Amino acid sequence: MTIEEIERLAAWCASACIGEIEMSEAGFSLRLRMQPAVAETRVAAARAPVGETVFKCVRALGVGIFRLDHPTTGHPVAEPGQTVRKGETVGVLQVGPCLKAVLASADGVLGAALVEDGAVVGYGTPLYALA
């Protein structure tokens, strides 16, 4: 794989809001991890025409089952209308027995969940709107 192909793959991952990708073939393996804030900024810049408002949202950075309530406590991780800071946990992504925090991508007010509790989500799935 050439550096140009890797750069194209990284750009595609950023535009698709993919947080991590790993691939291997005979004699070669590659793992790319995208920085969430960088990927979100690139996507917003690429998709928004000048003068148009960008839809801010929290997206899934992996594949799993989205949980509004923390599986171990049964309490909501975050509530709609709550003011959140960038990097604050607003949900949980469950992959088998493993739990991964879903983090706010920017400061804002958390909107209603865009997917139901227990829904299977993929890379880049919008989970919450941010105002």
UniProtKB/TrEMBL annotation:
**Its domain of life?**
Bacteria
> What is the designated name of this protein?
Acetyl-CoA carboxylase biotin carboxyl carrier protein
Q: Which organism is it from?
A: Mesorhizobium qingshengii
